[in-house]
Amino acid sequence: MEIILKEDIIGLGYKNDIVNVKSGYGRNYLIPQGKGVVASASAKKQLAENLKQQAAKLAAYKAEAEKKAAQLEGVELVIVAKVSATGVTYGSVNTATVAEELAKKGIEVDRKIITMRDIKKVGTSEATIHFHKEVEVKVPVSVVAENQPAPVAEEVVEAPVAETAPEAAAE
After folding, report:
1. How far apart are CA 10 and CA 48, in angstroms?
2. Could you tell me if 5 and 19 are in contact, meaning their C-beta atoms sit under 8 angstroms apart?
3. Does residue 152 fall inside a structural domain?
């Protein structure tokens, strides 16, 4: 069954896309929820006309999405979580947690446009933020233990190594 989507549905398609779905999914969920309409010949014609009229508005929407994506360039999230002795987190780090951390950095992102697997162990993962169907940003997410020493401690270790080198050269 062909459906014209009326809104973005992550994992299926974006607004004004024509997608093939199983008839039960279209009839029982997408159409009654107002998320799509049957892609008949007249509906396709109307969609083409609407896209022509909204071309400028869509270009502005894409430019805004690119501007938001530019804010996230080089952003890395470090999330501190309670961790067991085996390195497994109590609970999980999910899209809501990532959205909260971005909000703390002054970047407002709706958790519904973030896709990632829930993180249940200490380590690094990646979250994808879908601003527009052509604009996606991948943000690295590091989960560290609450009682783990801060990464600054590694820099302190390097400093004494540099001091011992001149002494060895003097001998």
Report:
1. 23
2. yes
3. no
DSSP string, 106-131: T----GGGEE-PPEEESEEEEEEEEE
Average pLDDT rounded to a whole number, residues 34-41: 94
The C-alpha atoms of residue 157 and residue 68 are separated, in whole angstroms, by: 38
Q: Are residues 96 and 119 in the same domain?
A: yes
Q: What is the pLDDT of residues 79-89, one digit of tens each?
A: 988 888 888 88
Of 54, 12, 58, 55, the C-alpha closest to 3 is: 12
Q: Is residue 99 in a domain?
A: yes
- Quick one: pLDDT at residue 149? 53
Picking from 64, 92, 111, the residue at the C-terminal end of a domain is: 64
Question: For residue 50, what are its two tokens?
Answer: 């609407």
H or E element: which one contains 92? Answer: strand 88-93
Residue range 22-33: mean pLDDT, rounded? 94
The verdict on 93 and 116 lying in the same domain is yes
pTM, rounded to two decimals: 0.61
Containing structural domain, residue 41: 2-64
CATH of the domain at 133: 3.10.430.100
Residue 39 confidence (pLDDT) above 60: yes
